[in-house]
Specification:
Length: 152
């Protein structure tokens, strides 16, 4: 400090008070701590905010994209209901209705003698050869019996 203090100033000043023109070390330390705390709290906030999306991605959920969109909506609108719905969707395992229905549809097509998903190139050929190749064995046997009857 300077030798000439103001007459109303106390004679003993604390160490964190700097002289005019000197660097304020306390302000720099507090600024660095504040910047680190803001970055740390922001990182924790974003980690907690993306929790439903990470849960749905880790468990390979079908509703992953819906959870991701709800997370973005919650982030940009600050509406916590979207985040809660996304968290609930990430925790619930929705049953897979598509696979059994596709298998049933494929089996029904095979029984009906229509084009199956297994042999799309045969359906593209068409004609008697393609239609005979797509028929199940039972139907081919019935055709053979009717041919024998007609020749007899």
């Amino acid at each position: 400090m300077s030798e000439s203090l103001h007459p109303s100033a106390p004679h003993h000043l604390p160490g964190f008070i700097t002289a005019p023109g000197d660097t304020d070390i306390l302000m720099l330390v507090v600024g660095i701590i504040l910047l680190g705390a803001v970055l740390m709290v922001g990182n924790i906030y974003l980690q907690v905010h993306s929790l439903p999306e990470r849960m749905a991605h880790r468990s390979q959920k079908l509703q992953f994209e819906i959870v991701a969109v709800l997370g973005l909506l919650a982030l940009f609108t600050h509406n916590h209901l979207f985040w809660v719905i996304g968290l609930l969707l990430a925790m619930v395992d929705l049953p897979d209705f598509g696979t059994p229905l596709r298998r049933i549809a494929g089996s029904v097509e095979k029984i009906a003698g229509g084009p199956s998903d297994d042999a799309p190139e045969l359906a593209a050929e068409g004609g008697a050869h393609g239609a005979a190749a797509e028929k199940p064995d039972v139907m081919q046997a019935d055709d053979a019996k009717s041919e024998v009857r007609s020749h007899a």
